[in-house]
Amino acid sequence: MKRIALVLAGLLVIIARSAIARQETATQLEDSAIKEGAIIVKVSYAMGQLDIWGYTSVMEVAAVTSYEVGIPDTFYGMTIRIGGSGSTKTSLFDFGEVVSLSEALDYMVIQSEEWDLENREYTEVYFKIRDDFRIGFFQEETAQTVFAQSGKIAKTTANWEENKRVTATEILRNIKALVDKGLDKLKSLTIE
Q1: At what angle do helices 95-115 and 168-191 cross, to 10 degrees?
Q2: Which DSSP state fits 153?
Q3: Residue 4 belongs to a domain
Q4: Theoretical Cys-Cys bridge with 149: which of 101, 134, 167, 186, CB 3.0 to 4.6 Å?
Q5: What is the pTM of this model?
């Protein structure tokens, strides 16, 4: 009986830690979106989408503001929706995470360009935000593929392989341009 009680107590501690970890990983934008008993105003500004001819994978980017009526704080962030293989997922990012994502994409553009014709073993470069979002590229021999993943449990992955029409570096530059466009919009909103 004592053993069962100890096992149950251990399980409760694990469940509690898991719940706390999940709460800590939520963005301010996510917190405001799921708040109950309050009127939330959320405004999305579409920044565009990465839609490369010949690919079924799609990425849409939007700058987002969110606030609770009667509360002076406004949250600034971004949503990125990933579509591929018949499913879609959306990830939410706070302002600081958008800045980090932009900086990470800078690095990836440079790295992709440097390795473009280099024969490499399987190598992966990626940037991850929480358990929810991962973006990067991988290279095997001289072929590079850009990928983005969204979702905490059932993830949706979009892949863009370089081909004769477009290189991985160009795809990463296009993604960075969308993120930077959203970042510029967020900066302009914080000044207003």
Answers
A1: 160
A2: S
A3: no
A4: 134
A5: 0.78
CATH code of the domain containing 186: 3.30.2450
Given a contact cutoff of 8 angstroms between Cβ atoms, the answer to whether 40 and 32 are in contact is yes
Residue 85 contacts residue 156 (beta carbons within 8 Å): yes
Number of domains composing the chain: 1
pLDDT tens by residue, 54-73: 666 788 898 888 878 887 77
For CA atoms 23, 31, 95, 58, give the dihedral sign. positive
CA-based R_g, the chain, Å: 20
Tell whether 175 is covered by a domain.
Answer: yes
Closest CA to 152 of 27, 13, 33: 27
Whole-angstrom Cα distance, residue 76 to residue 96? 9
Does residue 89 fall inside a structural domain? yes
Full domain range(s) for residue 78: 28-191
Residue 66: both structure tokens together: 């969110």
Q: Does the structure show a pLDDT above 80 at 103?
A: yes
Residues 6 or more apart whose Cβ sits within 8 Å of residue 105: 127, 135, 172, 175, 176, 179
User: 54, 69, 79: which is closest to 161 by C-alpha?
Assistant: 54
- Residue 32 CA: distances (Å) to CA of 16, 60, 125, 155, 182: 22, 21, 32, 23, 20
**Do the domain assignments include residue 33?**
yes
